Amino acid sequence: MSEILLETIYHVCGLILIYISIKTLMDKDHSSRIGTFIFWACLGTVVGFGKWLPPVISGALVILMCVMVMLKRVKAGNVAKTGESYTKKIADEIGYRIFIPAIAIGLVTICVAIFTKLGALVGLGIGTFLSAIITVLMTGDKTISYLTEGRRTIETVGPISILTMLLATLGTVFSTMGVGDIITEGATKVIPQGNILIGVIVYVVAMALFSMLMGNAFAAFSVITIGIGLPFVIKLGLNPNVIGILGLTSGFCGTLMTPMAANYNVVPVAILEMKDRYGVIKKQIPVAIIMLLFHIILMKIMG
Amino acid sequence: MIKLIGIIIVVLGFALKLDPIGTVIIAIVTTGLAAGQDIVGIMELLGKTFVANRYMCLFIIILPAVGLLERNGLSIVASNVIRKIKSSTPSKIITIYGLMRTFFAALNVNFGGVASFTKPIIYPMAAASLENRGIRLSSKDRDSLKGLSAAQENISWFFGQVLFVAGPGVILVKSSLDNAGFKVEPIEAVKAEIPVIFLTILVTAIYMYIVSNRIISKYNRESLLHNKAEADE
């Protein structure tokens, strides 16, 4: 049941993307009609119906999307922005009641995740549809606005929306080739073992750096903990209860500083329509570095 | 060593601010080729992981609903709430949101998110708290507030979820170290993490306070100069 519902949500997601591609194709004034059409049509097909396609076909479609992006052929279309007068008028009429559909997205997601066996992703899908239905009923807005706004907001994010999935592939490639092992092997040869302070610093910094490289502290954790955490820190008699979890959160500090963690650090820049691609990371770096220092201190005194 | 070519491509590409999609796909293909894969094998792997990780782009499904909410006044109403609270500042709003996000994350509840919360509600509130003071924000300072809101979002969610005893973080630590022969007690691990969370909240709150105050005092200085110039005339 959960599987079928989740797949249905992917279908809907795919259809929205295909709607964008068709709208683009019909837009005679579009500055890059064909390239943009190809990008959203391929993405819609892979996201909506990738389960039915042989992996090699999905892979070919992904490469085609990337080629369109690299040739700079994917551009946002001309979607009229909602007039401020309309938004102001509705805001006056509806007032705080607009928070009901806004909160509904999160609330429904949580309720579905806790009270059913369908999972949070299905909850998220149901929550967003319910939210849209409540909004339309409450404001008397046209149903098509859902798709028009969808096209505008999704096109604002643009090709960056696929970066996370590409990075997941890169992570898989790195792991299967044993990149982590090469790095830990090098580190163990160069750095002396036996000194607790040096060990702690090496482990914390290695967790942060490898998390930056993988874009994900979870992917870095077992490689670095087994390769560096054990010989440099835990085997010197420090408490594994403390070292393990603090190692993981040292990795989080790294995740806060890397564009490889695209879903946290790069996609939000596009969603928030910021100019500087690293605008979010730059705001996180001071906190991340201070917290890394605290990790070293806490590991040394609590471990 | 040839295996590390992908890392070099990625690091250079991101450092030189080249197109990230192009950088990553080239890194995938070259690393695959360097490892002796053929192009069909690489495409297969790409297709398989892309489809397996589709959940990562489910924010696409949030966007139309949030766009609809914004069209129907959500951000304006959120700003209006803040206009009634004269003493509000960006750092207070962002920190309160961060505490709420951390609290829910500790219960393993993912309540929040950039698309559904930060963009339509928290950032407009933070901006409104400055407009309250008669400040007309430059686009650079707007981006700065957006960056702070997103940073708080990430920090709270990352560190908060580690407090959940049966969360994926704690489980990963336990399974990795148990396998290596070092028993980990989940409750003890979570206890060890409490000082980290406490410090994270403190450091982030102070940081938010400093950056938000810097913006406020910058505009205060400007209006002071402006008033002085007018008085001189």
Q: How would you summarize this macromolecular structure in one to three sentences?
A:
The complex is a heterodimer of chains A (303) and B (233). Chain A contains 15 helices and no strands.
Explain what this protein looks like in three dimensions.
The complex is a heterodimer of chains A (303) and B (233). Helix content of chain A is 76%, strand content 0%. Chain A has 15 helices and no strands. The longest helix of chain A is centred in the first third of the chain and has 25 residues, at 2-26. The relative contact order of chain A is 0.08. The longest helix of chain B has 47 residues, at 186-232. The mean pLDDT of chain B is 91.
Key attributes of the depicted protein:
heterodimer, A: 303 residues, mainly alpha, 15 helices, 0% strand, B: 233 residues, 78% helix
Quote the average pLDDT of chain A: 92
Main beta sheet of chain B, described?
none
Major beta sheet summary of chain A = none
Q: What is the succession of H and E elements of chain B? A: HHHHHHHHHH
- Rough outline of chain B: globular
Q: Tell me what portion of residues of chain B adopts beta-strand conformation.
A: under 5%
Distance from first to last alpha carbon of chain A: 46 Å
Q: Segments of chain A where pLDDT lies below 50 for 5+ residues?
A: none
- Structural class label of chain A: mainly alpha
Radius of gyration of chain A: 23 Å
Q: Which chains share the greatest interface?
A: A-B, 135 and 112 residues
What are the segments of chain B in which pLDDT stays under 50 over at least 5 consecutive residues?
none
Helicity level of chain B, as a percent range? over 70%
